Amino acid sequence: MGSAPSCGSNVRNIDTHLQRLSSNQKLTEDELNMLTTMLRTKASEAMEIKHKLADDGLYVDSIRKTIALFFINTCSHKFNKVKQRVKFIMEISTILLQTKFINIIRGCLIKLHIRGWVNVDGTVDKSAYDLIRWSMSFVVDLADVSDELSFSLANDKNYMAAIKTILEDKSTQYLQSDISPLSDFDSEIIENCLKVVTNISRWSNCAQLLRNHNFTKVIKPYLNSSDELTSLAVLSALAAIVNESECDIINAALDKVQLLLDVLKHGLDENDRRYRGWSCKECAYTVKTLVRNDANKQLLVELGVLELLVKMGRTGNEEEQCESVNAAWALCFNKDTQQKVAKDESLGLVELLFDLKTSSNSHIRKTCNGALWTLRDVLASSEYQKNRIFECRQDTQIGLTMEYFIYKSATYASLSSNRQSGDPQWMHTGGR
């Protein structure tokens, strides 16, 4: 992160940085390094404060200011590239964990959901509300990129219990706003709670923790949210934590699954590969998570997911190609899908797998070879594919392909055996 500036220059540089935050200027690498150094110092100083709570039940002023600094900078759009912002957020996550300032961030919700953020006269206690809003808003971003920080959240029973209580207590008002509408303040807190759960669920080491906390039951009602993006986030979270016996939850939400594919379809036509806040990579990841339950495979194929995955694999970067072929391979374990892939030449999935199986990316290469091996029998009997499959069998890499497929088969067998115990069956074992 670079060497720390002198005390005098540090003050001047921080002032310059804060001026840039209120302007349209992007931050330089040196300014970002200075910023992370300053935030680490502020977090460490906050943890040294002996009496952290004031008489009003809120954190003392210096801690509130530090929380505000993390919020302002994490949610800032003053980055030159997306990768630069992701790197910065990862550094923020590391700072929070190493200084243990994450305990204070979690404490904002744990303490204040009990204390409340409404005054006795019914007005909003702005100081309390801001603390919850600040802490949850940047936790949403942090949980999206850091598995370690997500695990620290999911593993905190008090923090997750606070989220559960808020979601359970407010669900009727949120979903039936014509009866007793929630304030905009409460609605924002609920939506941030759902976003935190969604982003945590995308990490394989956290999904089972959410299931242990019974979040399937807690968030299921929010599938019916009138806000489409909220319901889409809930669909993504449920896809990660439901087991095979609960797949009817997804099948009953056909309109939400269709919404997911519509968002992916539009995103593929955008220059930044995003639509309504969702990236194509996120959409494909959710598809991959959905198809780990057998009952969802046919539904997705009927809704046209294969065509979208092929387009994504053809036009996307390596990250999108990874998610595309991962989801495609998962779908190919369904017998009906195998027939469709082998017989429908216009679909182009087999051609995509053949083209990408020589990718320089080892994960893409192995996944494509694995998918082709899964399809080997139906391809061998396919009139238009039989010559291609013969070529594949002559591939010098087929030994590696077979070895990899045997390994994955053992993994799938192990995961399938967990269905009886209710454990989620992940299509991948290495995280996101």
Helix/strand order, N-terminal first: HHHHHHHHHHHHHHEEHHHHHHHHHH
Alpha-beta content class = mainly alpha
Radius of gyration: 24 Å
Q: What fraction, in percent, of the residue positions are helical?
A: 55-70%
Instruction: Name the shape in a single word.
Output: globular
InterPro entries: ARM-like, ARM-type_fold
What do you see in this structure?
The protein is mostly helical and about 425 residues long. It has a domain of about 200 residues. It contains 24 helices and two strands. Strand 1 and strand 2 form a beta hairpin. It is globular. The N terminus and C terminus are likely disordered.
Provide a short characterization of the protein structure:
InterPro entries: ARM-like, ARM-type_fold. The chain is mainly alpha-helical and 432 residues long.
